[in-house]
Write the structure tokens for this entry.
Amino acid sequence: MTLRLEPSNSVMTVSSSDLFLRHRLKVVEDLWESVLRTECGQELVVLLAQLRSMYSSEGQACNFSESSVLKLVEQLDLNDAIRAARAFALYFQLINIVEQHYEQRDRLRGVGGTHTVVPENEQFDVPKESPYFASHSVTRRREFANFSALFPKLKELNVPPQQIQKIMESLDIRLVFTAHPTEIVRHTLRTKQRRLAQILQEFDTLEEGGQPDSQTTSSETKDLLEALTEEIRLWWRTDELHQFKPSVLDEVDYTLHYFKEVLFDAVPQLHQRLKRSLQSSFPYLQPPRYNFCKFGSWVGSDRDGNPYCTPSITWKTACYQRQLILDKYMGSLDRLTQLLSLSLHWSDVLPELLESLEQDRLQMPDIYEKLAIRYRQEPYRLKLAYICHRLENTRDRNQRLYTESDWNRHLSDIKNAPMYHSGAEFLDELRLIQRNLAATGLSCRDLEQLICQVEIYGFILAHLDIRQESSRHSTAITEIAEYLQILPGPYDDLSEAEKTDWLTTELKTRRPLIPAELPFSEQTSEIICTFRMLRALQEEFGLEICQTYIISMSRDVSDLLEVLLLAKEAGIYDPATGMGTIQVVPLFETVEDLKRAPTVMQNLFELPLYHALLSGGYHTGLPVTVKEPDLPNISNLKSSHIQVPKLQEVMLGYSDSNKDSGFLSSNWEIHKAQKALQIIGDRYSVVLRIFHGRGGSVGRGGGPAYEAILAQPGRSINGRIKITEQGEVLASKYTLPELALYNLETIASAVIQSSLLGSGFDDIEAWNQIMEELADCSRQHYRALIYEQPDFIDFFHEVTPIDEISKLQISSRPARRSSGKRDLGSLRAIPWVFSWTQTRFLLPAWYGVGTALNNFLEQEPEEHLKLLRYFYLKWPFFKMVISKVEMTLSKVDLEMAHHYVRELTQSENRDRFEALFTQIATEFNLTRDLVLAITEHQRLLDGDPDLQRSVQLRNATIVPLGLLQVSLLKRLREHQSQSVTGVIHSRYSKGELLRGALLTINGIAAGMRNTG
């Protein structure tokens, strides 16, 4: 079986690295075939070869409506169909591992991708708005996606060092891990993937360091091939599907796996890389603090639409995170104890270390008695023994907190044992050792790395963000107000102005609103308990564990004030001082909400109480520049008068806005909202941190983060950004250490570059007017199909596996916000995109773009085409949009999509569904042709050969999986219809058929490398 890595008629320069990758792919494919032949016989291998013949040289499906292979698929025994589906799914997982491994390999060796060099005579003038912007086209800006390239470029461009220093001091990157139902690979299989990557690394070492003709090398190669074969055989016999619906804590465990295996050790290297590159070009500048890149998590705290995320679960999540990081610190202390063997005979120490040891002796006499003789002349080891004991006690107490899971009460210290109450206390002791080493002319890399890790992770690992849908808060307040009879009518019946007035009044009074006992419904009680749990979290873990409360579907000022009122009742907002330990974060999701966002935030900033909250209380109304401190709890805030920056976080949602109005309109509305919000922030002297709710797929805001960050408007970043990292992309970004570092360095480089080298093109009014026209036309065309075409909902449910996807055990939350409904409004964006990805339509990420571009070009064909090409070359936002559309179009397979329509449509719907398909196909062809015209590519992705090869390789093998999926879906649906009539002719049970269909869903998701 031969891999078709590129069309036979293509002409492409192939690097040695690419040849090496192809060689590895061939080796792994041969082993895959060998394992299948051993496990299932030659018949399966022959069947797979037949199925893989159904694609063109471009990797697209052929016209197979009358094909003998199609008839073969229809006649396959269910067991053979399932085995074929599993085989292709395994194939995709294997080539994913090989590609990821060699991406990491190239990064380590400094092998870059193909760069487009723009001739000097095509460089554009530097806009007046940005005197320091590089005089290069957008395509060349990829060259600066790492620190070693970026800082020399900043020096070449004469960017003032003081501006660079200012960004270094304010650099604040936050990556928030989520667990939406997009990650379909079991944790068990992720472990196997890591093992296979390790074996590939051993192959590299052997081939690069050994003698090719030596007998020893030949023997070792044989051993590694046997090890690979063994791993693949074990994988083949492992179930790909989850045996049960994962709980929230299962998702927590899965997400924390990346911290444990990769990020704990990798992130400190990010700071080292930045420091080294910065000081190489600007030796007098100071690098950012260690924790300029922090991590957050929604896993275990995001309760929007997830009834299983309870206050107890969030409490357990915090304990779980602390347990993991304490265990990692214990391992680091063991290594330090081995290293720091300095003797008083040969090395002096400062008096402060001796004083510290004396205090430790008094507090921990048992440790002194046990180790005093052993470490009599080794003060560092003795000090580390005391530190380890404190850390062990802290860990033991945390384990009890997790086990008892009672956030309503706090455990007393274990027999008053000495322990650490915060990461800051632990850090102080490590710095004490560091100072003593430095005073004697020594340093210790392991100690410096541990200090860096403690600054980044503290005792919490990742910041938890609470998220809840806005209507849940208004419903709770309505019930509370009705119980207390403090309003003449229902709270929900009030106008927005009346709600704001009443909430503002309640926020100014110290009178309790909610009784200690909760005589309310289960939903309202859960909301109240969430805020009480939040206070308990802050008291136990410190404010850094959780200060952010995100309100999804935010529409008005009252949505934020409702949360603040509930926070007041829990004691985390004080009406007397105007101080609080909570950040209320609106999430604007739909297009209408994005348009309203600037007005909502302006009205909010004009409220004195909210202005005071941002300013750190009523004692000051002046903006301050200090960084966000680790504050004590709110009771101490009243007397300390600690000032906090006037910083407001605003989250922008890509998924729902895309589902609402299409890809182009969604991206433009988000772009405009950021510009408008920045103006409002400046007007009220409020620093904004934009939180980008990006999904993994293009239809939900996904795509390369580097280009996306550079495409942000004006000064909307200014050193600060917060981004969601969806479950489906975690494996591709964070499974291997060098890939994780590359991803983090790319994001950090983009943030620095965007903050210092803004293009100024976003402020050209004529360009904005053209984009407004394009977005409006695209939105109208998109909504005409999705929301106004009466047959579309039936089409969607019939020709895509949406109903089967909802049965896939991949997430703790349901696919719909409201059960029992079949409308698009209640359907979450994730399964919406997932369904179109499976059928190869990928419709949400491109539909409407072609019509919008065409309408614009028809006005002045030649001139407007030149203008759009100029946009593509010069304007980062437009470049990003077109590039994402181009990538998505390359994954579309209309022939395969048409196969779903033909085979899954019921006879009475055939004519109307064919008409819908024709409409979609026409828009696809138009979009593809115009994208190629704008990019001046002959084929999609000609500008990125590596991605082109990867997509094409997968497209080809997804074809037979699609054929299998359609066949199994037909059988499953026929079985279900027969169950209704009571006469079942199928020889297979519903469970068997569903299992087969779900296996194909897993396989296609792995092949597409994204799901929803």
The radius of gyration is 30 Å. DSSP finds 38 helices and eleven strands in the chain. Confidence is low (pLDDT under 50) at residues 1-14, 111-141, 621-644. The longest strand covers residues 647-653.
